[in-house]
Amino acid sequence: MCGIVGLFDTRGQREIDRQLLGRMNQTQVHRGPDEGQLYTEAGIGLGHRRLSIMDVSSGQQPLFNEDGTVVVVFNGEIYNFQELAKELVALGHDFRTHCDTEVIVHAWEEWGELCVDRFRGMFAFGLWDRNREVLFLARDRLGIKPLYYSLLNDGTFIFASELKALLAHPDFRRDMNPHAIEDYFAYGYVPEPKTIFTQGLKLPPAHTLKLHRGQSTLRPRQYWEIPFTPNECTSVQEAQEELIVRLRESVKIHLMTEVPLGAFLSGGVDSSAVVAMMANLMEEPVNTCSISFGDPAFNESQYAQKVADRYHTQHNMEQVDADDFDLIDKLASLYDEPFADSSAMPTYRVCELARKRVTVALSGDGGDENLAGYRRYRWHLYEERMRSMLPLGFRKPLFGLLGNAYPKADWAPRVLRAKSTFEALARDSVEGYFHGVSIMKDRMRQRLFSASFKRSLQGYDAVEVLRTHAGKCPVQDPLSLVQYLDMKTYLVGDILTKVDRASMAHALEVRVPLLDHKLVEWISGLPVSLKLRGQEGKYVLKKALEPYLSDDILYRDKMGFSVPLASWFRGPLRQRLNDALMGPTLADTGFFNKAFLKEMLEQHQSGRRDYSASLWSLLMFESFLRNVLDTEQPSARKNDLRVA
Predict the structure, then answer these.
(1) Active-site residue, from 2, 233, 289, 473
(2) I need a labelling partner for 453 at 20 to 30 A (CA). Which of 70, 361, 430, 541 fits?
(3) Active-site residue 233, yes or no?
(4) For residue range 234-244, what is the model confidence (pLDDT) as tens digits?
C-alpha cells in the first residue's frame, strides 16, 4: 500500500520543480513510511511513498520497463499478477522483480489502456510512456483505492492519492464548490467525481484518464460496470455452495503477502465470514482485532469473541474510551474534506490496534451493498409497493400534505415515524431513496443555508447525484437499483474512503475480499429473492454460512459500527458543539442561517429532537475549515471561504 503523486506539463516540457514534487510526496508519508522516491524528466515528475508488502527487497517505485521508456507509480495490489507475469513473459517481456507493480508497465506495453481489463485487485496508478508522450491514470473497479487530480490554470496537471498533496501545490485554488457543499450536507461526504474544492476532482471507480502532451481536455473513460447479468444458479442450495466456493477463492487470493497479516472481526456477519474462510485456508492462527464500547447498545465484542473462540484466532481486543474526542480534529486532517461518518472514530482506533500486530488486515466491507444487508433496503421495497398502487400525480399532493401535517417523532420506532414515510411516498423512487439516506432532508437544508449561499447553488439539488447514476443503471428492479446507487455513492464515498484514510494513517493495508470484482459480478446476477427474502437481508450468504457460524452471529439484529452522538451532544460535547456552531468559523463563511443553527442546538440539547447526525456533520465541517484550510494556506483565509 502506498501513496502516489505526479506533475505533468500538458502544454510543453517545462522543467519540473523537484522540491515541490518532494513536498507534495512528503504529505503522504503516512501511506508509505518505508521508502520515498522521485523521478523527473522534461515536463513530467512522479513521486511515490512505499509501504512494503510484496517483494520487499526489490519493489521500489517509480518502476520502469526494460528500456526505461515506461514508468509507473502504483498504490494497491494486483492479486493475479503472477499469472499475468507468466503470460507476459511468454509474449517476450523481461521481468527484473517479483512484485505486482512490474506487471503494470509490461501490460501497458502489450495491451495499452485495455491493460486494466486484465487486472484483478485494488489499484490506483499513474503511468508515463515517454515514446507516446502519454500520461495514463487508472482506478480500480469498485473505488477501493483513491485518486485525486486537478488541471491548474497554467496547464499543469497534478494527481495524488490524497487531496492534501494537491493542497501542497501553491497554484491549487481553494475555492469551495457550492454543489459539493450541498452534497456533503445531504450525504455526509462529497460523492465522486467532485471534491470540496472546485478545482479538484476524484477519478471515479472503474475509470481511466489518458492525457497526451498538448491536450487540455480531460475525458475519463469507464472500463467496467456492475453487470447484473443473471447467472446460472438453479436453486438456493446451488447458490449457497457456489457462493462459498467463490468467497473462499476471493479470500485466498487476498492472503498473498510477505508481511504479517490478520483481519478485523466486529462480530457481524461479513467480518465473521471472512475470518471463517481465513481460518480454513491458513495453517497458523488468524490474527483478529476488535474494539469494544462501554455502552452495551453499541458493543458487539462478545460476538467477536465467540467467533474468535470458535476458530482459535489470536484475538486482540481493546475498549475505546467513551470520551475519545481528541480524534475530531485529527479526522478532519486525515480526510482533507468534510466527512461526517462518526464511525470514522472507532475505525481509526481498530486500525491503530491492528497495526500493532499486522501490516495487512482483511475486512468484511462490501457485504451489505452486495447482498442487500441494510435495513433501508427493506423499507425502500415497502415504500415501492405503496408507490406502485397509486400514480405519482395522486401520491404527491396526498402524502405531501400528510407529511407536512404529521408531527416529527425522532424518539419513536421507525414504524411509527409516519412523517418520514409520508414524505418518501410523495416522491418518485430515486427521490424517495434519497430522502431516506439523507443526513439532512430537503427542508432542513433549505433552512440551514443562507439566502446568498442558496443563490450560489443556482437550483442545484443533491438528489441529482443519485439521478445521474440511476440513469446508467443496467437494471430497473427496485432492489438492484438502490444497491447499484449505494455501490456508486455510499460504498466508495463513505465506507471505502473511511477505511482507506483510517488505515493509511497507521500505515496499515486493508483488503476487502467481498469486493473482488469477479465475486461482485457473480453476486449481482443472483435473483433478488436470494439477497433479500422477507425481512432477512443477505439471505443466501447467511444460509451458506450456517455450517461456519452460529445463528446468534448470523440472525441477530444488525448493530452497525457507531458511537453515541445524541448523548455526547447533550453531555460531554455540549459546550464544544455550541462553540463550533455559534463561533466565528462557520459564521465567517456566510453559508449558514445562524438562527437555524441555534434552533437545532436548543431542540437537540433539550431532548425534543434528535439532530445528532446533522450536528455532527456541522461539527466536522467546522473542523475541516479550521484544520485543513487554515493550516494549508493561512494567508489565503478569505479566499478559502469563497464558493466558485
Answers:
(1) 2
(2) 430
(3) no
(4) 789 999 999 99
